[in-house]
Structures are given as structure tokens and as C-alpha cells.
UniProtKB/TrEMBL annotation:
Full protein name: DNA polymerase I
Gene (UniProt): polA
Residue ranges of coiled coil: none
Biological source species: Tritonibacter scottomollicae (Epibacterium scottomollicae)
Pfam families: 5_3_exonuc, 5_3_exonuc_N, DNA_pol_A, DNA_pol_A_exo1
Keywords: DNA damage, DNA repair, DNA replication, DNA-binding, DNA-directed DNA polymerase, Exonuclease, Hydrolase, Nuclease, Nucleotidyltransferase, Transferase
All residue ranges annotated as the 3'-5' exonuclease domain in the record: 327-523
Parts of the chain that traverse the membrane: none
Amino acid sequence: MSGTQFGKGCHLHLIDGSAFIFRAYHALPPLTRKSDGLPIGAVAGFCNMLQRYVEGNTGPDAPTHVAVIFDHSGKSFRNDLYDQYKANRPPAPEDLVPQFPLTREATRAFNIACKETEGFEADDIIATLACQARDAGGRVTIISSDKDLMQLVGDGVEMLDAMKNKRIDSDGVREKFGVGPDRVVDVQALAGDSVDNVPGAPGIGIKTAALLINEFGSLEELLDRAEEIKQPKRRQTLIEKREQIEMSKTLVQLDCEMALDFTLDELEVRDPDPEVLLGFLSEMEFRTLTKRLADQLGQEAPTIPETAAPAAQADLPEAPGFDVAEYTTVRDAETLQQWIDRIREHGYVAVDTETTGLDEMIADLVGICLCVTPGQACYVPLTHKAGNSGDLFGSDDLAEGQMPLEQALEMLKPVLEDDAILKIGQNMKYDAKIFVRNGIDVAPIDDTMLLSYALHGGLHGHGMDTLSERYLDHQPIPIKSLLGTGKSAITFDRVPIDEATPYAAEDADITLRLWQQFKPQLHQKQVTTVYETLERPLVPVLAQMERHGIKVDRDTLSRMSNAFSQKMAALESEIHELSGESFNVGSPAQLGEILFDKMSLPGGKRGKNGKYSTGADILEDLATEHELPARVLDWRQLSKLKSTYTDALQEHIHPETGRVHTSYLQTGANTGRMASSDPNLQNIPVRSEEGRRIREAFVADEGNVLLSLDYSQIELRILAHVAEIDALKQAFADGHDIHAMTASEIFDVPLDEMTSEIRRKAKAINFGVIYGISGFGLARNLRIPRGEAQGFIDRYFERFPGIRHYMDDTVNFAKEHGYVQTLFGRKIHTPEIAAKGPRASFAKRAAINAPIQGTAADVIRRAMVRMPEAIAHLPARMLLQVHDELIFEVPEGHVDETISVARKIMEGAADPAVHMDVKLVVDAGRGQNWAEAH
DNA sequence: GACATCACG
DNA sequence: GACGTACGTGATGTCC
């Protein structure tokens, strides 16, 4: 056959590669390569399907030419026609993404042509090839079950559903669409397609569409003569939505005349090269398949070492030391293109951005580093300024030898947004936010900080320096050595490029090395699900919340600040008068001396630095003795509110957005909780009346409302579930007041005789249990004798013995394994549990608390991950998270629906991963400001 | 930079 | 039997 021109007698097979991939992915469990944990299930299934396909190619239907056609990642020309095209399609699963390039490799290993084209979908390539083959007089079989391809059937073109082994010809198409292949697009244009988000004509499905097309002959005829339609609603739709219908047709119409950079002749069937094919299969560690194909090809099967993972790691080629690393500066497009080519070859890249500051809402991009191989990284300087770091009046001109920013971004954008290329970073949320401000939506991503958090939570911090020293035995170049410290510190754009390159490139290099080490461990440590469902997908969600921010009214804060100042001044003179001397009220040391030495008040205890303690609890006790401590308490409250909130918050209002943009630290708390900083919006006052008014400054944008949805008693509910306390479960099921119920049980008081004082005690005990109760702690909290507190606890354990078992079991588990777990499988390490003395006591209480606090944290993370999609059809925005509460902003008209949708997501957040015996309940509030909404 | 204090869940 | 003690955070001001 070789050298024959495609024509009569030839038979072209066109395989829809994406359909193969997704079918393979869903048909197989999430297999990973044994030596390094690389996800490999879809590739395995894909190879099996290719093998079966090749094997079945005998007889009259055997092809002379064949190609596997893939969708090129990214957007197609249809997105230019309609930006919503395929917009509701969920992104590819994370563990599938790294497998996309491998399926291309597999195709080539089978020596089958493998084609994809940027800006076009696989369907268009298939259409163009099918038309070319048909016009040349050949026969075509499209191996796919995608109905969008049915318009191509006829004239020697057929489809084959490989799963059902069913051929589809013109009759088959007529069965499916009610019209012949030539009118399929007309029907699709009318019926639309919810999967691809093609709008079509509302209210018209395939049946009706076929009826209309058959009646009028064509879509154009139908639209021109729409007035003749009898049904008024249908007539109106067709007239009013004409433009939308015509646009839909252009979306579903496949392009048969694409300019291809290859010809049909190049698709001729070829035998695989045994060495290449078996090499690929054994590299993937497919034992069965390698052997089967080796037998078929009459070759000796290459041996695949039966290595356990840790041994395999030792087998990996030793990464070069950091001292011999090759770090280059990229100064022109040609060199950058070489790096981009390398990235595309690998299918992943470690990325790091250098910027002018730490606030990603304000900092500007200075340069980008890339790394695909340990020890080889590049730095692309973009906006470094001329003039050296020592020059105080450094020029604002750009330094020589840098690519134009726009050009570099334009070249990198397709790579950074490519679904098939994994972008690896350390704290990628930061870099992603910088990129968004430069018009690039980085995805998909992996994050070494989050990998470490999932793997090592509780063992150590997850910053780059810690990780590098710990896992790579390498101390990174300190940023201070480039920027200096304090007042004389410079910004990164003032660092000479020659100095910047080794620092920046090293960060990307470290990130890549960490990723190579951590990623396979997810599977071994059984935290893949935690990482994939609770950590990785949260990154874009948080990034969006942070970028959106919450509106804060400066005037409200400013007025309150002035009021606080006046009150403080009055209190201060009163305090000075009472003490008989002028001193700094804000100095605990000076206050302590006044109270306990000069005035000889009782209860003077010295802390570890030899100073008297003057904490609020001590001053409260002293308040019965003297007026002064009470005044100091008042002053302190105002001082706190003013400095931390009314004043500091104003500094955080973004000059352009007028909103406050906090930053969430996903790895902030060992338990799985997040932390908020710059500013911390998770500790805005609420407990005191005076403080709560601060929340009035957090307002909804014009025409909008703030919503607050919070989990009711989530930690106690989780405790009831994990400790299996039937009485508690029942109380939650019946909707009873849980603290009153507890009080009734342990103090033997009937519910109708309950007093607020008894209930308060029970509430303290309930919280105490969650925190790993001790007689001393409860006694201090309730200000009762220690013996009495211990009595309460004893009675509590008597009534709810399950609690004691839970505590003992949890501590024992921690001692045995070195960690405890949440219901979702998050591991929180407790290295101190083996310590002696008070440290062990701390660790025990932390171990008791962690699964409860951590499970609650996991629950709300699940809700947050699912929220954007759930509210996508609403003009609602999720703004803040405060541990068990989510804050939304939504136009007035959509309040009720938003509450109902968000509540459903939150209450169902544990499902289906975890079944809870106790239902989760969410309370909702609304208002013009946060005080009203809460 | 350590410490004390206090804001939140 | 003594140890110290509720769990998890971040921001601020003082003082060295």
C-alpha cells in the first residue's frame, strides 16, 4: 500500500481521542504508577482500547488509513462566536490532567497518527478529514458516539460506536434526530445542547425541532416563514430568538474546510515499532498489556521491576545538586519559545513569579521563573528598573535586556491556561492572583505548600524555606540578601537582573523538586482525597473571594475612631487621677506596678518575665476592690477596637476597589481551619455591643444585601456523631436546646425549671469537652472551685460515657500512629503526644480537639469548593469565611434564592464522602451590613 | 523580636 | 505524685 494516494478503495478510520480518554478514565479505578504514584488509570484504559481496536481490525472493515484526533486544550473559534460555549462544562478531573499528554504519547507508541490543532475542536478536524476522504472517493468510519458528528454521515461516511460495536448510517441518524444527516445541524440549532451550552430555541427539543424542519424543509425556510406557525408560543420564540438560533447553528456546524498541515496520505496504517511500543508500555508499568503485546509482536517482554515505591525513589536518577544547577536568564522571544517547547514536552512546569511586594492586590509583576527539570530553570525578567540597588534615586527606566512584558505574557498565556499542562507552584494562590491581574487564568495547578499540608500537617510549617531545608537539605538564598531589611529595603524590581536570576530560578527549581518528592506520597500516605477535594480545588475559590473583597465604609470607621479617642482620653485622665500619677495605661508592666506595688491590691502574680500579669480576668477580679481596674478594662477595650479595627481597617481599604481584600492562608491552622490576615477578617468584634458596631462598617454594595449563613453548633454535632452519643444525637434530631439538655442531664434539673445560670455552666462544659476538658480549665472559666468543676466533669462522663471512650480512643490512636484524623481523612500529626510532662498534656487535648475542629473545617471547605458552581446562575458572590460562617453579597431580588441554594450546599456538604448521623443545620441572616446580617 | 493582651470561632 | 492546664488563630503595643 505504501505510497498509494488516498482514493477509491481506501478506508479511513477517525478515532475521537477525547471520547476514548474519558471513557477510559471513568471505566477504571484511579490507578497510579507503582514506582512514583503518577495517575495512570486513563492511560491504561486508553491503551487497552487502542489495543483492542487494532486487534479487531480484520476483515472488510479494516482501515487503510487511521488517525486519532484530539481536542486541543484551550478555547476554540466557537468561543469567539459565543463566549458561553461549553462554559458550563466542568474542568477535567485533576488526576486526569497529567494523563492527557500521555495519551498522545500512547497513540504515537502504537504508531498511529495523532492530530490536534490549536483553536479547533477534534470534531472539526474529523469533519475536514471525512469530507476530504469522501470527496476522494474513499470510505470513512468515525469511531465515536458523539451526536455532533452525525451531521457527517452519508456518502460513504459512517459512525461506529466502539462500546456497543454498532454502526450508524443515515438511517441510524434519522432514528436519532428524526431528520437525515444533512438536516442534523438544523435540528441541533433549534434544540440546543445543554452539555455544550448551545442555547438553541427555548422550549424546543429534538422532537419538535425535527417536526418543524420536516415541515418547512430547512432551518432558513422555517425562520423566514415563522409567521405561519400556528402555536403562538412557538411562533413567538422562533421570531424573537432568531438571532440566537442562527448563532446556535454556527456553533454546531462543523468546519469541513480547515486548513490542515498534513494530508490523508500521511495517515496510512503502519505497524508499530515493537521497541517503541513495548518501551512505552513498560515505562507506564502496564505489566499485563506489555506481556500481551510482546507475545503478539513475537518479542521478549521487557521486565518491569517489582519495586516498592520507596525503593523506586532511590532508583530515580539523582537530581543534580543545587551547586551545579544551571540557571539562565531569558531575554528574548526565541529563548522563551525554547522553554515553552520544553514545557509542552513535559506536560508540567514549576512556576514562580517575582513581584514588587507581598500584597498580591497591589504588587506588580517583575519577572517569571520556569523549571521543568531539577537543576535547570530560567528567569524571565520583565520589569526590572535600570540603576542598581545602592542607588537611592534609581531610574524608573526599564533595565536593558528584558523582553517586553506583553510579548512574554502573550507567549506564556496559552501554556499557563492549557488544561493539559500542570502548573506547579509554592503557594500558587499568590502567583495565580498576580497572573489574573495580567489577564492570565492559570489552571490547572498543583501546590507544594498544600501537598505538604496534606502530607505533614502538624509536623512543621509549610513555607518554602522550611520545606527546602527539611526535604532537600538545601538552604535557599534568603530574599533579604537581595532586598535588605528595614527602611533601606528595596523592591524586587530594583534588584539587578544578574542577582535576581539565581534567586528566582532557584525557587522554581526547589518547587519542582519538592513536587516530585511530595506528589507520589499523597497516595502512599492515603491523603489523595484530602488534597484533591479539600485543598487543590479551594485555591481558585479563595483567590476569587479575596479579589472580590468586601466593601468597608471609611466614614463609619473614621467617626467611630474619633468617638473612641474622646472616650479614651476621658478614661485616661480618670485612671491617672485614681492612681495618683501619670503613666502609660497601655503598658502592662507600668500598670502592674501601680496596682500591686503602689496600691497593694491583692492577687499580684508575676508572669515568666517577672512582670505582674494584668490580663482581663485578673482585672475583672480586682474590679470588686477598686474602681481603677474597671476603668482600665474599659480603656483597653476601646484601645483594641480603635487600633486594631477602626484605624487599621481603614489602611486596608484598597484605593481602587474601595473594598477590603483579606488573604486566606489555607495552611494556617494545623486542624484544617484557615487563617485570615492582612487584615484578619475572622476576628471582627461581635461579642460586645460596642465592638459589634464595627460590623456596621462592613456594607453591601449599592442595590445589594449581605447574607450570613452559619452552621449551627457544628462542632457539638460532630462530637455527637464521632463519639456516638445517642442522647446528644436525639436532642439535635428533635431540635432541642443542646446546652439546656446537657444541663438537665448532668444537674438533674427538668427542662421547664432550667435557669440561665445552670445552662451557662452546661454550655461551658460542652465547649470544654471539645477542647479536651480539665477540672482546672473549667474551674477557671466558670470561676468556681476546682473540686466543683471536677464534679461536673465526672457527672458529664457518667451521663455520656461515649465521650470518655472517644477521648481515650483518640489519645491512644494518636500515641500509636502519631496523628489523628478527621472524618474526611485529613491527618493531623501529634508529634508531642510522646513527650513527657505538660507538653504531653497539651498534645492530648489538641489530639482530642483536632478531629472535631478539623472535621468542621473540612465540612465548610467542601461547601466552599462546591459553592461557585452552585451559585453560578445567580448574581451572588461569596465574600468571606469565618470558620463556620460564609458571607455573601447579592442583589436584593435574589436574596431568597441565594439563601436556599447556599444553605443546601452547606447542609449537604458532608455528603457523599461522609455520612453524618446528625444533620447539619445552617442559620441565615441578611442586612445592609454585617451587623444586621449576622 | 519576645511577650502580653485581646479580638474571633 | 507533681506538673501546669481548656482548642485554634492574628494584630497590636510595649519594651529590650
